[in-house]
Amino acid sequence: MYQLGSSHRIDITAQFENVFRRHKRLFVFDMDSTLIQQEVIDEIARHAGIVDQVSRITESAMRGEIDFRDSLQQRVLLLKGHPASILDEIRSSIVFSPGVKDLCVALKRLGCKLAVISGGFLPLARYVQAELRLDYAFANNLKVTDDGKHFAGSTSGPVVDASRKAELLTVIAQAELIDHMDQVVAVGDGANDLQMMTAAGLGIAYNAKPKVQQQADARINQPSMLHVLYLMGLQWKEIQDLLQMN
């Protein structure tokens, strides 16, 4: 299916037509290059003047060439001693992916719960949560020095890697009393999203790396994430009606 779609530059998805196709209850999103257009760790690195070193590690991790946990530790260590105020600068420059805000509005009006589970950092995940009115936000906790002014070069708490993402998706589904995983959708773009996408009833690769597209249930290679609603079986008129509701 992936090869056929790629050869014709179109998105092709085969789904069972059943009650769960339209009646989703939980959507879980990756953050970097999914809900937002940036890769946060690369933005931090750019402000810190270490972009080349960090980008090489990020790209290798996204392609699945190195373990995400190791790549995170390597990148965070490079940030040691740089000002923590960089996060405030990045927050003000975040750009949401096309269609994301409308998609979240539509899904909330359909009664869905929404979550961001990110291998990035919690302050920015919480900002995204507030802007999009998401119900849950999970990400890595980036440690700072005791005076709060500089990055300490490490994280605290469980690392949100591929397995942790899948685990958190399952925990949220259980908390929402969701019995059928067919009612759960996961959207991501990188190799560290694959376990989460597999755990969901429908895993969607959004403008993703080839490895991710090959393993995903569905692919969106269009700028707008609003196309997610088509995968639920909604028509354009229905989508417009949802967005125009008071």
Automatic annotation (TrEMBL):
One of its GO terms (molecular function) is L-phosphoserine phosphatase activity. Pathway: Amino-acid biosynthesis; L-serine biosynthesis; L-serine from 3-phospho-D-glycerate: step 3/3. It is an enzyme of class 3 (hydrolase). Signal peptide: none annotated. InterPro entries: HAD-like_SerB, HAD-like_sf, HAD_sf, PSP. The keyword Metal-binding applies. Keywords: Amino-acid biosynthesis, Hydrolase, Magnesium, Metal-binding, Serine biosynthesis. This is phosphoserine phosphatase. Belongs to the HAD-like hydrolase superfamily. SerB family. It comes from the Eukaryota. GO terms for biological process: L-serine biosynthetic process. Coiled coil: none annotated.
